[in-house]
Amino acid sequence: MARGDILLQVTAAGLCTAYLNQPVEVPAPRLRLREFGVSGFPQNRLRLGYGPEVPHAQRRELRHVICG
C-alpha cells in the first residue's frame, strides 16, 4: 500500500514514474546498491521526474482476456 500511496502522490504532483528493474535483477548492480546505503535485498528501483506526455498503453478487450 505504501508504494501505491507514493505513486498517487507523485502523479498528483505532476511527476512521472518509471520502474528500473534490471539493476536489481542482475547480481553485480544489485550489490552496488548497497554502496548507496540500501540495506536488505533490493526489489526494484523507481525513477521520478518530469517528462513528456505519452499515450497510455493499448489494452486488450476484456472478452479477449477472460475465459469462461
Could you describe the 3D structure shown?
This protein has 68 residues and is α+β, with helices and mostly antiparallel strands. It has one domain. 37% of the residues lie in helices and 15% in strands. It has helices at 2-12, 22-25, 27-32, 62-65, and strands at residues 16-20, 45-49. It has a two-stranded antiparallel ribbon.
Features:
single chain, 68 residues, 4 helices, 15% strand, alpha+beta, two-stranded antiparallel sheet
Helices and strands in order, then pairings?
Layout: H1 2-12, E1 16-20, H2 22-25, H3 27-32, E2 45-49, H4 62-65
Antiparallel strand pairs: 1-2
Short description:
The protein has helices spanning 2-12, 22-25, 27-32, 62-65, and strands spanning 16-20, 45-49. With 68 residues, the protein is an alpha+beta fold.
The overall pLDDT average reads 84
Quickly give the structural class: alpha+beta
The share of residues in helices is 25-40%
- What is the overall shape? extended
Any low-confidence stretches, pLDDT <50, length ≥5? none
Report the major sheet. Answer: 2 strands, antiparallel
Spatial order of the strands in the main sheet?
1-2
Strand proportion: 5-15%
